[in-house]
Amino acid sequence: QGQLVESGGGSVQAGGSLRLSCTAPGFSASACGVDWYRQADGKKREWVSSIWPGGTRDYSDSVKGRFTTSRDKDKTTVYLQMNNLKPEDTAIYSCETGYGPTWCETRFPRGQGTQVTVSS
């Protein structure tokens, strides 16, 4: 167990793609749902997407149709595939446990985030 760690951020031009990853030692996405959030400079933290332990997914209207969250076959890593990126997607993206037992949040605290920068 341990803090969730995000990776895969970077700088891209508008229209480009990035794939973020979220995992931790011993993490199981079949037990713990995962939520992705983002926070842009000077703005409130914004929910982006959720994936439930059973596999159901949901997205904010601002990313629906462009972003996809998924899990690897072992369900130890959760991904956020971001396509057709826009400058307004620029933010620090972080993952945290979502729907699931309360021990999920205790054992796997929120990650520190990864920067995504989209230039026009």
Description:
The protein is mainly beta and 120 residues long. It has one helix spanning 102-107; strands at residues 5-7, 10-13, 18-23, 34-39, 46-51, 57-59, 67-71, 77-82, 91-97, 114-119. A 6-stranded mixed β-sheet has the order 2-10-9-4-5-6, with no helix packed on it. Strand 4 (34-39) and strand 5 (46-51) form a beta hairpin. The mean pLDDT is 97.
Count of helical stretches: 1
Strand order of the largest sheet: 2-10-9-4-5-6
- Give the oligomeric state: single chain
Characterize the main sheet: 6 strands, mixed
Radius of gyration (Å): 13 Å
Helix content: under 10%
The CA-CA distance between the termini, in Å, is: 39 Å
Beta-strand content: 35-45%
Q: Give the structural class.
A: mainly beta
Number of strands: 10
Task: Report low-confidence residues grouped into runs of 5 or more.
Answer: none
Question: What is the element string, with H for helices and E for strands?
Answer: EEEEEEEEEHE
Shape: globular
The average pLDDT score comes to 97
